Amino acid sequence: MTKELVWVTRTDPFNRLTAKRLAGAGYEPLSAPALRVVAMPARPLTAVPDALVFTSLNGVRMHRFFPALADLPVFAVGDHSARFARARGYSRVTSAAGNITDLCRVIRLGLSAPADILHVGAVSPAGDMAAMLGSSYRVRRLPVYDIEESDPRDLEWIAGRLEAIGHIIVHSPRAGSHVARWLDAAMPDWTGVAHCISPAAAEPFRALPGISAQISNRPDERSLLSALFENRGPGSSIAAVAHGLDRSRGARRVRMADAGHA
């Protein structure tokens, strides 16, 4: 039986985990990141904050762990980021299990104001946390990495297999934008499914009306892959359970012509 091809656009090294889950579920994953992570020069901490906030897995990975900060309250945007932070050595980690709006809500519930927060993340983060939290919280940003789009030449081998690829996994709006532009140039009539982690990640595909999109009900990989496995047919639920994926979280499928209303 021929395995379905899935293009994994997630950044390295976390694309390897996605590919492993897909392979275990019976797909053939093709890992070709749409973006790459570039480390920023380390900046020394000038003051110990009241709490640390991580808005991505890469923020946790690229930030040097200091034992003196191990007992600080740590707020992570999602479950994976939270688990990674605990593995690094932080002992008081709370997961928002969602997006930046959920994260700000969890911070207000778990951290008394006024408070100094160190936001560790990308050079250009998604959302203005300082504005969302308000003046009662003093937010200092510590960029530890930047995101760059992959060179189109690195995706040329994908172009040769596009006709056989039925699914693309998209983990961020930035990746969605780059992939949609690349598809428009390489094969604008591609008619597969883009599995997107959020409506913002799906939005760039509106210019390619032949594409269908599945928008995850939750902004995490658990929901993203569960929907793919569920829609595959008999046997997919076994693979999903085997890889710790909650099948109760699905996704909604839309034609890209209607994505703006999703």
Give descriptors for this structure.
10 helices; Rossmann fold; alpha/beta; 262 residues
Quick overview of this protein structure:
With 262 residues, this protein is of the alpha/beta class.
Helix-strand category: alpha/beta
**CATH architecture assignment name of the largest domain:** 3-Layer(aba) Sandwich
Spatial arrangement of strands, main beta sheet? 2-1-9-10-11-12
Helix and strand pattern: EHEEEHEHEHEHEHEHEHEHHE
| Proportion in β-strands | 25-35%
Q: Which geometry do the CA atoms define? A: elongated
Q: Under the CATH scheme, which class of the largest domain?
A: Alpha Beta
**Nearest-integer average pLDDT:** 87
Span of the ends, CA to CA: 35 Å
Q: How many structural domains can be distinguished in the coordinates?
A: 2
Rg, Å, rounded? 19 Å
Largest sheet: 6 strands, mixed
Plain-language structure description:
With 262 residues, the protein is α/β, with parallel strands linked by helices. The chain folds into 2 domains: 5-34 and 150-261, Rossmann fold; 43-147, Rossmann fold, CATH 3.40.50.10090. The chain has helices at residues 14-24, 57-62, 79-88, 100-110, 129-133, 156-159, 173-186, 199-202, 221-230, 236-242; strands spanning 5-8, 28-31, 35-39, 51-54, 73-76, 92-95, 115-122, 137-149, 165-170, 193-196, 212-216, 251-255. The strands form 2 sheets. Strands 2-1-9-10-11-12 form a 6-stranded mixed β-sheet, with helices on both faces. Strands 3-8-7-4-5-6 form a 6-stranded mixed β-sheet, sandwiched between helices. α2 links the parallel β4 (51-54) and β5. α9 (221-230) packs antiparallel against α10. The longest helix is centred in the last third of the chain and has 14 residues, at 173-186. The protein is elongated, with a radius of gyration of 19 Å. The model is unreliable at 234-250 and 252-262 (pLDDT under 50).
